[in-house]
Amino acid sequence: MAGNSLVVNVDIADTRVALIENGVIAELYIERKNQRSVVGNIYLGRVTRVLPGMQAAFVDVGLDRAAFLHVEDAIRPEDFAALVPGDETEGEDGNGSAGKPQHRRVTRATPIRDVLTEGQEIFVQISKEPLGTKGARATSHVSLPGRHVVYMPTARSNGVSRRIGNDKERGRLKKLLEELKPATGGLIVRTVAEGLSEEQIRSDVDYLTNLWADICKKREKARAPSLVYSDLDLVLRAARDLFTSDVEKLVLDDAAAYQKLCTFVAKFMPERRHEVSLYEGDEPIFDAYGIEEEIARALAKRVHLPSGGYLVIDQAEALTAIDVNTGRFVGSGSVEETILKTNIEAVAEVAYQLRFRNLGGLIIIDFIDMERPRNRDKVYKALVAALRNDKARTTTVRISELGLVEMTRKRTRESLERTLHEPCFYCEGTGQILSRAAVAQEIFRQMRREKDRLEGYTIFVNAHPAVVDHMEREDKESVAEAQRRYQRNIVLRSRQDYHLEQFDIQGKA
Prior knowledge:
Blueprint: E1 5-10, E2 14-21, E3 24-32, E4 42-51, E5 56-60, E6 67-70, H1 77-81, E7 121-128, E8 137-139, E9 144-145, E10 149-152, E11 159-160, H2 167-180, E12 186-189, H3 198-221, E13 226-229, H4 234-241, E14 249-252, H5 255-268, E15 276-278, H6 285-288, H7 291-298, E16 302-304, E17 310-315, E18 319-325, H8 335-357, E19 361-366, H9 373-387, E20 394-396, E21 404-409, H10 416-420, H11 436-450, E22 458-463, H12 465-473, H13 476-486, E23 489-494, E24 503-508
Parallel strand pairs: 1-14, 6-8, 11-12, 14-15, 18-19, 22-23
Antiparallel strand pairs: 1-2, 2-3, 4-5, 4-7, 4-13, 5-6, 7-8, 9-10, 10-12, 16-17, 17-18, 19-21, 20-21, 22-24
Helix pairs in contact: 8-9, 11-12
């Protein structure tokens, strides 16, 4: 399917959104109905621990684990009160809210105990999902995204999206923001606002400032810890954040969600109503668009390149390692040319996989070694260029003589792999189990330990069928030697319900 589009699958237990760019699935978002995203939610929390050594605090917001709040993301309670609408106090200029003092900036150097104390109530917004064993990341610097602008009640200045490159348009929007700026806070114009009229942007600003006023009213009645504001569900968030001017259509397969979406679009982007459609085919929508097949490919450990090379992607706890291999590609020129072509192909695929799998944190890319510095430079520049289309912030270090690139990618939610997978119950997440030979040797050692405590002439060994088969075939002579040495008859019994590493030894009179 050519062009850019959003394909939404609303199922019984989850909702999935696929962003398709030029016929290729670029991003996939999944939200389970019993595990909705908490990013963007605003809570009245209570500080449970202040950690001066980490310049941070833990805040109970009512989730399974306390949220983590760094000092840079905190605001003093008395300063936050000055940002609440309807609580204007006359300033030095006698103009009410116009003279309201801006909050004092808290920096990395500000002692955390000067800002927060245990038991204190604090207003926070979730900025990063809980990841693994870590709780959510929180901030007191609230941001409320609208369709065209983002309102930040705690900000001091306005801004324009960096993706709007026209200097004249940027100047127009900056001037417009100065006219529309609320009594407190700042605004950021989103990319989709390019070319919009003052009236269109003003309606968004009015909606967000009224929303902030409602949130503050709810806060007054709330008791910590409690949820004060919940962000939109995945379908509406996708329409708000992903349904940009370069996305030609949005199609979804649920009638109820479609009606809800149409109401949202009619209110915030009426000019795009005709670009939203309901899928009514018999085939599941993700099957019809070839998305299920691409998801399976994304979860594969080995990803093949067009020329015959391949990537091996290993996601570990501390980092993600990506290894580039030539595979069956031998090229038609020199070895260096073959390696360069494979590495250049790998760059495009790596950038795609990082975005689609939503891999974040520390990433190490092991390109095939290149002898010529200019070739290493070509590969590095190609990687930097390929990462420009990634919405997540990335930082890369120049390629080393060994062909290694160290980079980081901002992580705000779990990767696709960890969303759809869980640690293997059989190997307990290690990815390895003892070999049949190793288990058999342990059985012989256990026999030696217990031989004097086992009653009767026969020793019964209960084990996994694969281990029993190994002992009957490869270790047949060892079993005979054990019988001779211990003067006992050894009977091997297969147990289908046993783990490969599980066994027990019994005696019988």
